[in-house]
# Entry
Amino acid sequence: KQEVTQIPAALSVPEGENLVLNCSFTDSAIYNLQWFRQDPGKGLTSLLLIQSSQREQTSGRLNASLDKSSGRSTLYIAASQPGDSATYLCAVRRTSSNTGKLIFGQGTTLQVKP
Amino acid sequence: ETGVTQTPRHLVMGMTNKKSLKCEQHLGHNAMYWYKQSAKKPLELMFVYSLEERVENNSVPSRFSPECPNSSHLFLHLHTLQPEDSALYLCASSQYDRVTEAFFGQGTRLTVV
# Structure
């Protein structure tokens, strides 16, 4: 059974800091991993998708890495801003899934203080 | 705007009511999903429709009834719900047969009174 864990559950940093969010998964047989952002009471916004054959993906100030063998992914946010405050979710799609089903972690709630 | 639209955004219903949630995608995706997000819990998959056929049902109570009339529309029919069914219901779409991003709607915040 695939389980996804995100640590820490909450994080508060001053503006301008670089930070790392962690995601771990128990089954390394994944098809892809996706990072999302969720603002309070809203839906999910896709940030980055990493295919199983890739090691990292970058978009602006965001960089996501993937180490399948150790069952880990990290989301690096450079020069954090108050607008980055949100909950960040990682989700994996298993290789065995032929439906595109995603298995989610519980998220890391980030607060960036001005 | 993600290309996936959900209505209504908020819904309050009594335990004896019948209501429906609607989801629409114009991304050309061939799979649509309903997820449930309760407080303090990870998102849980409820149903998957692939090419308009239900391919996954994760032990969801029969008071939740999905419908997928075509590849762009997905409904979740609700009847005789319980207060513990109060949650954020999220619709998503993707290409099940390719490595593509899943896109989510803004969700329906459901409160059962």
